[in-house]
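Annotated sample (chain length 522).
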Amino acid sequence: MALDGRPTSSMQTDRVSEALKESEDKYRFLTGTMREGVAVHELLYDQSGRAIDYRVLDVNPAYERLLNIPASRAIGAKASELYGTGEPPLLDTYARVVSTGAPAVVETHFDRLRKRFRISAFSSRPPRFTTVFEDTTRQREREAHFWQRQRMEAIGRLAGGVAHDLNNLLTAILGYGELLLDQLDEGDPRREDVDQIRSAGENAAALTRQLLAFGRRQVLNPVVLRLDETVSGMEKMLRRVVGEAVRLRIVADPHQEAVKVDPGQAEQIIMNLAVNARDAMPRGGELVIETRNVTIGPDEPAVAGQMDPGTYGLLRIADSGTGMSPETKAHIFEPFFTTKEQGKGTGLGLSTVYGIVKQSGGYIWVESEPDQGAVFSVYLPATAERPSLRTGPSAPPRAVGGDETILLIEEQPAIMSIATETLQRRGYRVLRSTGGEDALSVANCCKGPIHLAIIDPMMHGPDAAEVIARLQRERPQLRVLYASGYTVQFNPQGVPDPSAPFLQKPFTAAELLGKVRETLNA
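Output written by the structure step:
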């Protein structure tokens, strides 16, 4: 120590060295425990002073893990050597950070890693700068799936609304076609014209059913079944459908848990996905249909973070076909979207599958890249209930008549007319009303019994639940039949009992008469 009490230069140097070492140890500790990747760089210039590259001086362990580059390879390497063509064009950004001292935050995609990163860059000692890498891949996937789901919900509501309105029109077209056909003799040449009208109406009705399926507004009759048994039962049909050029391989788990789904709709999912796979392999290939159990734990990241924990029955359909670009993959479940040439498809196959899966409480995901085939994975919630015995389709109700009084509540004049004529021809007395308030007024004027009310829950004015409740206060024995282009479960207006008798529009005269008789006899 100097005579005046000040530390010598040697002691000062030692203290500075200790402080620097302590600071470096803190830096190493902080960066070594960070989840974000940290890299220190040095900007490189040409003779004119223009930034042309940058060199890596130091990295932390998270950098090595996130970018899959060991420190031994990264440190000392130039960015152009280290990243190659997979490095995003960020040199100008980094040069601006060094020259201005203002930090910058950018988000970019590394093609080599198929990852997205948010990169924060700052500089306190030019030409050096530091970058912090935060992996945002999963977050962006979740956001993309969220917006995709929102878009699909909006399209579904639109599709369901269009289908509902079309079903009202088709009810009148098919109904009048039936009445006209009944009035023509067997040898009348006009019968063929009427048959063509009916056929076109039935084809249109099939399209609206697919739209309702996409919008999750179709009528389902779920039963408990096992997907492995469903696939095995369809094997012969599937082999005929995919053709000899496609090698079909079925891997069914005999211990798969049961799921609750409409059996006809389950078969439609399998068939639509198999046909879609076949069309993606015009020169042949391999189609693998697999069923097994999948359990998603409460602490386990689900597919893209979008699935609820639990056990699922998995249906996996993989093909070796042409695959899809990201742009195509983003739209494949939308109705009327198709990559097939004009006239080769309606674009409703996959949208129907999507709606069935969602309405059944499940999830569907697709993985695909161009020339790498596609894998569709359908997850349906497992159930502890025992599988139901499969029975054949029930016979349609007989179209018989009666002499009861029916209150018909219908806003559409064409449907009102065709339904009235159909019921009256079979002996029923029909009271006509065009809405809720009108129905109450008509009922008050009727001195005799009213045995049945037929009502569309989508009518304007007071909702169906309110109208029926007021009618049944005066007439407790009144039975109700709901008729709509939607299903009862999805009508925004409430109904007293979602399991109440229901008639899906468009309906034929036979279906109307059969359902009326069935409801009256219940």
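Annotation: The chain has four domains: 24-135, 141-214, 223-300+310-383, 405-521.
Annotation: The chain has 16 helices and 17 strands.
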